[in-house]
Amino acid sequence: VRRKSRGNVSSLTCYQILETPLKKGEDKMEGGYAGNILNVDLTTGEVKKEPLDFELVNNYIGGWGINNRLAYDLIEPGIDPLSPENPIIIGAGVCVGTTVPASAKLFLTTKFPLNGAVATATSGGNFAHMLKYAGYDHLIITGRADKPVYLKIFDDDIRMEDASDLWGKDIEQTTDELWNRYEKCAVICIGQAGENLVNISFALVDKVGTLGKGGLGALMSSKNLKAIIAHGTKGIKVADEKRFKKTAELLLKRYMDYPLRPRWIELGTLYALGTLMPDSDIYGLRKIKKAPIACPSCPVACKLVVEIKDGEYAGLLDSMSSYANPLGIGIRFGMDYKEAVKCGDVCDRYGLDSLTVVAVIDFALDLYKKGIINEDDTDGLSLEWDFNTVMTLTEKIAKRDGFGDVLADGLLEMVKRIGGDSEKYVYHIKGFEPVFDPTMPGFGAAGEMGLGSEVFVQIITPRGGAHNVPGLSPTITPGRAPDQLMRHCKKIGASKEDIDKIFSEGFNVAVYSRCIEDWYSVFSTLGICCKHAVSMQYDSDTIAELYSALTGIEKSPKEIFSDAEKATTMQKLLNVREGFTRKDDSVPERWLNKGIKDYFTGASITKDDMDKLIDVYYEERGWDSKGIPTREKLVELGLGEIVKDMEKF
After folding, report:
1. Rounded to an integer, what distance in angstroms lies between the CA atom of residue 602 and that of residue 528?
2. CA distances from 83 to 32, 139, 351 (A)
3. Angle, helix 482-491 to helix 496-503, in steps of 10 degrees
4. Which residues, listed in sequence order, are joined to residue 50 by a DSSP beta bridge?
5. How large is the angle between the packed helices 607-621 and 557-577, nearest 10 degrees?
6. Which residues neighbour 170 within 8 Å (Cβ) at sequence distance 6 or greater?
7. Is the pTM of this model over 0.90?
8. How far apart are alpha carbons 123 and 172 in whole angstroms?
9. Under 8 Å between Cβ of 299 and 351
């Protein structure tokens, strides 16, 4: 049943949808796909619906694969990220909108303001489902509205609505107001940090799914776009219902039988950290957790609602994607759990990525303690690693107020503006603070993480420290035995040749990381969550069976992996065009100074060792020594039409 709108909502623009007719030979998708791409030009108000090209589907599957191919055609090299011409490309994977367990991922591809990389952000929540149910696999937004708007997508009713009354409101207030008007539509929206063009801003999906670390909030604001809402009623067809149901139900049974599932529901993504803390506490989580939150079709429910019941912040109710964020804030700045939750809540409301906020404030404190900056630079503030400093600077960042303006555009802009010796102390990969540090204690066990794939991928991925693959690799937890990793490699479809390369002489993390990335690419084309509790139930044969039964397009695991590899290659090509080179795939000096250790043996890894591993990774990918995909590789992947474009680099 379609949900009816409530209240008086006046339409700013409502243009007739211009439909592009289906071309001959493009009607081969029997199921899985909504079948359309929606184009919205905020400048003119034109809305155009075009059929999803079967060649795109056959070569890139869906989700981030098709997103990357669209980005190659739509994003002009060197474009200003905050210009009207920079598109926001949103895609839902093939399995989204079905009963495939944990298939709710949303993919947003654009050129990000923080570091100028063309990259893809991901999120859970309801938006991907609603977009497909409305009839669209992908949404492309360009242009700039002449005043604040929100984009409404309700089946074929596409409108730009006046958002003047929402401008200035935080994400919580905006989402609640939109839900009041339209019941429980899916909502992507920004807060005041985005409105003020803060480059460490992001958006939230349904108040709980983080989206666009690196400046999506600023990008949406540059288009005068406060929010995007969606609701659909059309559903998704399945090509072979009996075959599909059998595989989907088998997967669901695996989840229901998984003995650790209750722990994942209880602790969410903190489950892996549980053994580091007293079982009775876990940084106050058991005292304040109110309920788990699950994305559509997810049997794990790793997100959560917390409620502080006493003290200064009694009554604070907050939805969050992971309790690891307030935990990280609290440990880094010596806060109790209530203060840390309050800081996380403030960041979410303003639309600030809390991990990046922590990184820029920590860097500012380091420079302050070293005497590189002083109170003349900090608006008279005496900086300390404490709650008051974080709260004060967070508000100043969101408003671009005084010293907050220096922090608002991230670590590298801080170095440019502060100057002096600040560059010696900045800690980043492509402008993002690393999520995983091989010299720090690992998850779930004592000892350093060592050089696993989640660490290595940060170096070579175009997005840098903001990457999404860690949950797919057992090396996120120290102490895994080689035979455990071998079993995992076989499960995800790695060839015997790959496995021999990885384990024949110690542990080759470069080859292993390529295999993990390929597995991530498969999940991301299909729209399946990559968190460990989800991904561990899948294998390459099950993936191929699901896709074939759902779509009616028969593909083997090898064919699916080949198509998914194109997505990774397209992401690299996009950033080669933007001027990213091998020098950007650099190892932080902090890691080298502290000493990187081999994951299994604990042996020290030098800079020369890291350079050789990067060489191996490039070779595995079919890239040259500069990190540029070779002519031969492009032809092998069926991307021969791009060869001439790449010859200039």
Report:
1. 34
2. 34, 18, 20
3. 160
4. 37
5. 120
6. 191, 192, 349, 350, 351
7. yes
8. 17
9. no
Q: Please name the amino acid found at residue 151.
A: L
The string of DSSP codes covering 287-343 is HHEEEEE--TT-SS--EEEEE--SSTTTT-EEEES-THHHHHHHHHHT--HHHHHHH
Question: Mean pLDDT, to the nearest integer, of 238-261?
Answer: 92
Q: What is the pLDDT of residues 147-194, one digit of tens each?
A: 999 999 999 999 999 999 999 999 999 999 999 999 889 999 999 999
Percent of the chain beyond pLDDT 90? 76
DSSP class of 204: E
Rounded mean pLDDT of 602-628?
95
Say what the pLDDT of residue 82 is.
98
Name the strands in the sheet holding 11-13, side by side, starting at the edge strand that comes first in the sequence.
11-13, 157-162, 149-154, 225-231, 186-189, 203-205, 209-211
DSSP letter (8 states) at residue 23: P
Residue 347 · residue 357 · CB < 8 Å: yes
Q: What value does the mean pLDDT of the chain take?
A: 90
The closest alpha carbon to 227, from 215, 238, 216, 243, belongs to: 216
The two tokens of residue 227 are 């929010």
DSSP label at residue 4: P
Contact 393, 406 (CB under 8 A): no
The residue written with tokens 């876990």 in the block is 282
Of 525, 590, 517, the C-alpha closest to 553 is 525
Mean pLDDT along residues 535-552: 94
Token pair for 127: 């938006």
Here the tokens at position 44 are: 């003119």
CA 379/CA 289 separation, integer angstroms = 37
Output the CA angle 41-68-645, nearest 5 degrees: 100
528 in Cβ contact with 93 (< 8 Å): yes
Bridge partners, residue 160, by sequence: 13, 151
Q: Burial-class residue 312 by CB neighbours within 10 Å (0-12, 13-18, 19+).
A: exposed
Beta strands 11-13 and 36-41: pairing type?
A: unpaired
Note the pLDDT tens digit of each residue in 412-434.
999 999 999 999 999 999 999 99
Please name every residue paired with 142 in a beta bridge, in sequence order, or none if there are none.
41
Place of tokens 């079919």: 622
Q: Assign 436 to helix, strand or coil.
A: coil
* Nearest one of 144, 219, 213, 159 to 38, comparing CA atoms: 159
Write out pLDDT tens, residues 328-366. 899 899 999 999 999 999 999 999 999 999 999 999 999
* 528, 538 Cβ separation under 8 angstroms: yes
Distance CA 283, CA 435 (A): 20
How many angstroms separate the CA atoms of 167 and 246, rounded? 48
Percent of the chain with pLDDT over 70: 92
Report how far residue 645's alpha carbon sits from residue 73's, in angstroms, rounded to the nearest whole number: 12
Work out the angle at residue 322's Cα, subtended by the Cα atoms of residues 320 and 328, and round it to the nearest 5 degrees.
110
Identify the weakest region by mean pLDDT among 88-102, 263-277, 469-483, 629-643: 263-277
Q: How many Cβ atoms are within 10 Å of 644's Cβ, its own excluded?
A: 9
**HEC secondary structure over 560-612:** HHHHHHHHHHHHHHHHHHCCCCHHHCCCCHHHHHHCEEECCCCCEECHHHHHH
Residue 106's SS3 state is strand
Q: What are phi and psi of 398, to 5 degrees?
A: -60, -35
